[in-house]
Amino acid sequence: MDETSLRNAVAQASRSTVAERLNRGSSGNVSARCDNGFLVTPSGLPSADIQPDQVVRMAMDGSHAGRLPPSSEWRIHRDIYQARPEVNAVIHVHAPFAVSLACLRRDIPPFHYMVAVAGGADIRCAGYAMFGSQALSDRVLEALADRRACLMANHGLIAIGRNLTLALALAVEVESLCEQFWRASLMGPPVLLSDAEMAEALDKFAHYGQR
Question: Could you tell me the pTM of the whole model?
Answer without folding.
Answer: 0.95
